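Archive entry. Fields below.
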Amino acid sequence: MTIQSPPDDQGRFGDYGGRFAPEILMPALLELDEAFHEAWADPGFHAELDELLANYVGRPTPVYRAARLSEQLGIDLWLKREDLAHTGAHKVNNTIGQALLAKRMGKPRIIAETGAGQHGVATATACALLGLECVVYMGAKDVERQALNVYRMRLMDAEVISVEKGAATLKDAVSEAMRDWVASVENTHYIIGSVVGPHPFPLLVREFQKIIGEELQEQMDQSPIRPTPEVIVACVGGGSNAMGIFHPYRDSGIDLVGVEAAGHGIASGHHGASLVAGSPGVLHGSHTYLLQDEQGQVLEAHSISAGLDYPGVGPEHSYFRDTGIARYVAVTDDDALDALRVMSATEGIIPALESAHGLAWIMAAADELQGKTVVLNLSGRGDKDVQQVEKFGG
Amino acid sequence: MAERIRQMFAAARADNRAALLPYMTAGLPGPTTSIDMFRAMADAGADGFEVGIPYSDPLMDGPTIHEAGLRSLSKGTTTYSSLDLVEQIVVATAVPVVVMTYVNPVLAVGPADFCRRVADAGGSGLIVADLPADESDDIAAACQDAGLGLVLFVAPTTDDGRLAEVVARRPLFVYGVAELGVTGGRDAVSSHAAALAGRVRAATDTPLVLGVGISTAEAAHQAALVGDGVIVGSALVRRVLDASEPTDAAASLASAVTELAAAVRR
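PREDICTED_STRUCTURE:
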């Protein structure tokens, strides 16, 4: 399969992306870039990946018309059911792909960071499947609020390391995973969980995730019985589920809406909305929008949803933002909690708090969306969040 | 200003030793006492300083320097107050200074403005820990315009092809990463350092400074046998973090640097 530009050879999406990594990692990044392009051009790699995606992950995931919500909101609302993928989120599309790649490169040890725990679980899963050693870095605060996922990872024989530094959330977990990689790069592959990090990670995670949008095109645009989407909505933390569903539609002119975490509200300063309220800089190896002060110190993000609690975002989203290929909005903790309850009670589907941000925006924008065919990427299921919701008076 | 660093290497070489470049995070143990740390180290035999601007997300640094950065930031240290400190160091000691930071604080100020401010403070050069040679064009140009030298890294993982590209950019000095890992003490210098030094020597006569993982006098001595300079960071920073009074911190640094300065003799 050919890979479309951007990014260019240096990993640039316009002004964004690049490879701002310590020299010690550069050879590994260059090797990974080469190995990925080689694998992606190899039908044998795709055959192995496709077989696992079909029979292990359960792809294609369904697209389902949310009839009762549609009626209630006056919108033709469809859900892309990534929550039905094995492990309960879209993250597994990427981890299976990268774990296969690691095996191909002869790296027996895998490290990963995780926020909500979904990427950690998906990485532990891929490692168990392929017989790789697995170490997952997770902020101490997230270890506490996502205890169920911690236990799932440990059941699958992954080592979970609790990171106490900083705010003890996703940003700190990424930094700590990168520090491990600096010391272990010769035998270790870092399976980064989103379209973030130094080149080639934003590219390869996008390529592994864009199956979401490609399936949607087959299931809706090319279907004789279903309508074509007019609006596609996805939550954005690092932005992998959004990039996965947006990318195949980037030239379609369809309204692509990325929903970030407004936390306690943008004005409060406690949020995770880097595209809505941040500015360009370098975080975790790429040039992108991030939350920072005027002297370039990175600020702590806040979101009730651990997966959106991140002060940066994938560089291609920064490019989409500036070029208008997609637009980005933000939704508060409270509205996301409400949306989670609404979807649970109306459709019998408990969404992840991350995905609930997407529905919350749709509910808030219902007037603007009247009569339109709207697809929400239901990126994960909400079992992991039930305790959190209960704590907040659910 | 970059000239002062070149003179430092020449003087050390003439004295049959490697230059000793202690690293210290700016603003510790406190905003007004930080200068005393550098005075103590200068008096004890430091040849040059690597002054770290504290940063929220120091990917290349281990727990000690990370902790130091967060503590310094919590005491109100900023990029600008760090550069004020550089100016104090240059005035109060005869020791040249290179400033160490990460890409984002440079971009936030703007590369041209940032480099001009470092030069105005009397700094000689710039080290950017997450800036590989491939991404360094803009910042290298800004350094050159300001009369600063940019330091570039090579690591044990850097192959000879990349190494040739790095040295072709004429860095102020080559920072040889002596260990596979982030900053922080190890018991001994690994075999990586000597092998890397041999490869750098074969490729260039640009000075080679070894750093990362060098914490003891013995390790500094081994590094001094193969490099033009030796950076010791975490082991010194730890002394400042652990001291209960600034005067204790300065005394502890003085004794450590005295020992290291003897160790870098060949």
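CURATOR_NOTE: The domain at 2-263 of chain B is CATH 3.20.20.70 (TIM Barrel).
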